[in-house]
Amino acid sequence: MRKFVSYVINAWETLKSDVLAVPGNDPAFKGGVSGWLEVIFCYPGLHAIVVHRIIHFLHATLHIPFLPRLLSHIMRWLTGIEIHPGAKIGKGFFIDHGMGIVIGETAEVGNNVRLYHGVTLGGTGKEQGKRHPTVEDNVMIGARACLLGNITVGEGAKIGAGAVVVKDVKAGATVVGIPASPLVRHTETDSNDTPLSIKILLDRINRLEKELDALKNYRNEEVA
Which Enzyme Commission number(s) are listed (predicted)? Predict the structure, then answer.
């Protein structure tokens, strides 16, 4: 009985954190009665995660066959968001404009993670076992980013829109591009220092200019 009560309390806290993640992440949230009515009835991302938690319980705890996959398929059709019943997702999960999101079977998502439309937490082939990303707490993943394989995205990291991530991302890092690489932020002091590669290029240009001047002087002397 205690175990059941503990589960109900935890489920309620998780549900509450998912709902409260909306005003904390969506600037379009208006507040008031009308705002909360929109959240309850008009946010497919919230609908997807709430139903997924039920589906995950049926799949991972009760080990009910077929039904969880059927329900997840129906939710995909209703919301445009595909979450495998086996995916583990923490509290305070927020999906903004969720159309096209795919979260694979062995994906693990921490607390207070934010996803935008088109994000994929997918695998890279037909390997068995753990084959999808692990996303730690407080991570933001931009629109249409693809995170592939058994990689880890560290706490507080940010994944830029359209990035393709196939390697681990350090905690607090921001990665962008294809393949994704860390975004280097230059300080004001750094901006005054010419990078070594540019210095080498400038030295090469100076040498070529000197050689060109010497060649011109030589030809002028011949003409004279």
Answer: 2.3.1.30
